[in-house]
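In this supplementary section we document a worked example of the pipeline. Step one takes a protein sequence of length 387 as its only input; no multiple sequence alignment statistics are reported here. Step two produces a three-dimensional model, which step three serialises into C-alpha cells for compact storage. The input and output of this example are shown verbatim.
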Amino acid sequence: MDLPAPGSFCVRHLLLAALLCTGGGRLASAQDTGVVAVTRGSAGISGVVTDSSGHPLADIEVSVSAGSARTRSGALGSFFLSGLDAGWATLSARRLGFKVFSQQVRLVERVNLRVNIRLMSSPEVLEAVAVIAPRQAYDSRLAGFNARSALKVGHFVTRARIDRANSTNLTDMLREIPGVKIGGMRNEGRAIRLRNSDCAPLVFVDGFPATAGEFDVDMIDLQSVEGIEVYAGLGSIPAEFSGPRDLDRCGVIAIWSRPSRDRRVARDTRPVAVQPTVPRTEPFTVDEVDVIARLDTGTKGPTYPDSLYRASVGGRVVVEFVVDAQGLVELATFDVMASSHPLFTQAVHDALAEARFRPAAQGGRKVRQFVQMPFSFTPDAPKQAKP
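The serialised model returned by step three reads:
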C-alpha cells in the first residue's frame, strides 16, 4: 500500500479543517465567519450598520478610500462593497444626525472583510423651530363661508383645493364646477355663464358686489383667494348675496380673499450642523468647524399654510441643507428627512430661501456647512361659527 507523500496528508486535512466550524462539523458560511471569496484579484468588505443601541440603520452611505467606492446600507443595515484594491484603506460611514465613522482597514486580495459599524448620535441636536398660528379676528369674516360650505347648498372651492391645483387662473377652478361655461370677452377677458344663462353672474368679493355686468375674475390672483362659492339657481342663492334690481337672476359667484395675519414664531437660535449623506472635504460637519453656523436673530420663520390652519392640522418637518460661506441656504442641497404634509414642506422651503445665517468658520475662514433643522407647526383652535 502506497503511503501519501510526506506533508501532503497534513496539508489536505488543514484545508478541510479551515472549512469546518468547531463543534458542529458543518461548513462555515460567509455570515458565520465573515470571510468569503470575491472576484479574483480584488478584495471586498461587508457588514451591518447599527446605532448605539444596536438597531440596524438603513440608507447609510458607506465608502472606502474617500469615496472611490461607495454603497448604501439596506433595510436591515447590511452593506457590501467588492472590487476593491488590496492594502490599507479608510472605511467611512456618514449620515445626518450621527458622528462620522472612520476606521483604517487592511483589505486582502480575494477575501471579504467583515466590519460591523456602530454610529453614535450627534451630541448636539437643534431644537425645533415652532410655527404657531394663533386665532385671529378675521375668522368671523369667513365664518359664513365655512357654514355654507358645510351645508353644501352651492358649489365650493376651498383653499386646500386651490393649493393642489397647478394653475394661477381663477377660471381654472370654476371650470371644475358643473354648469359653468367660460368664453372670451371683447377685451380679451373671460366671460362666465352659469346653467346656460345669457347674462353674467353677479360677483361678490369679500361680501360686497364687485360690479354689475361682466367681470373678469382672472384679474384676481388665485394665490390671494381663500375660497370660492358658486350658486347657479335663484332658489339656492343665500339672502346675503341677493342683488339689487334682480342682478342675481343669472347666478352668483362669491370670492373670499386670503387673510393677512402676523405669525408668532418661537425659535432656538442655535442650529447645529450634523453629518451629510455624501463623502466630501467640503461642506464641513459640526465636528469639523471651529464656529458652527447659526440662524440670524430676527429671520422670519415659515408661514403657516392657511388651508391646514383652517382644518386645525399640525405637523412636523425635518430638513437638511448646506449654509454657504455668505450665510445663505443652498436650496439645491435642500432635502427632506421627514414631513407630515407637503404644504408644510413648501412653507419651510420658502422660508429658508429668505433665511440668513451666520456662516460657520474653520481655521479663521468662513466655510460651507451641513445643517439639520426641525420645524413644528401648531395651530391654535380657530373660532367656531355661531349657529
